[in-house]
Each structure stands twice: as C-alpha cells, then as structure tokens.
What does this fold into?
Amino acid sequence: MYDKNNIFAKIIKKEIPCNLIFEDEKIIFFHDINPQAKIHILGIPKTEVINLSDFIQKCGQEEVYYFFKKIYEIVKKFNLQKTGYRLITNEGTDSNQEVQHFHVHILGGENLGSLN
Ligand code: AMP
It folds into this structure.
C-alpha cells in the first residue's frame, strides 16, 4: 500500500524542498541529500508507485519510456555518458529501500569502484 506521506510524495507536493534539477507534470529529478558519489541524482515518476515492480505493472509503456528516456537526458546533461555512471533502484527487504516511492539513483562524477 502506497504511503501518501513518504518523503518523496512530500517533495512532489512541495511540502518539503529539494535541490531541483528538472521537473514537469510527470517526473522530477533532484540531488540526493546524502550523496554517495560526486554526482548523486534521484529520478522519480510522480505517479504513486512504490518500486519498479509497481511502476511496470501499473503504468503504461508511454509513461515508463518517458521516465527512462529522461534519465538518459539527465545523464547527458551532466556529461556522465563520457566517463560512465551507475543506475540503482532498490526494492524490497533485501535492498533496504528507505523511501517507499519508486526512484532511480544516478551516480557518477568519479570512479565508483566495482560492485564486488
Ligand atoms: P533508497 O534507499 O533507495 O530508498 O534511497 C533513498 C534516498 O533518498 C537516499 O539516498 C537518501 O539520501 C535520499 N533522501 C532522503 N530524503 C531526501 C530528501 N529530502 N531530499 C533528497 N534526497 C533524500
């Protein structure tokens, strides 16, 4: 069940501020408050979905494509395609997802190390 009072829902409703990068009626991108790399951006669709499974199951192709296309545009805006970047989305208990509104982390701006 989607919690309408999660932090990102509050950012969407402008109840709390964010360090905004891009926003339109469907999506919003902002800097992570606790960056894990030189560049750490969060991208979220405004639709009330909890995680990737929820997003794919509830939203149509057009909305899913629009969101991921914008991720690529943000990657290019920060020139990350030149040196590389990492996308992360957390879902479920094993991932320790903190905020229960679907989001994608875009990390880059420095060498991120390897996952293992
Ligand atoms: P996750 O573990 O994938 O749910 O990650 C949630 C992310 O949201 C973390 O990287 C937090 O630093 C970030 N975060 C939490 N509150 C805010 C906020 N008010 N503005 C920006 N980022 C936030």
The chain has a mean pLDDT of 98. Residues 88 and 105 are 5 Å apart (CA to CA). Residues 7, 16, 18, 32-34, 42, 90, 97-99 surround adenosine monophosphate (CB under 6 Å). The radius of gyration is 14 Å.
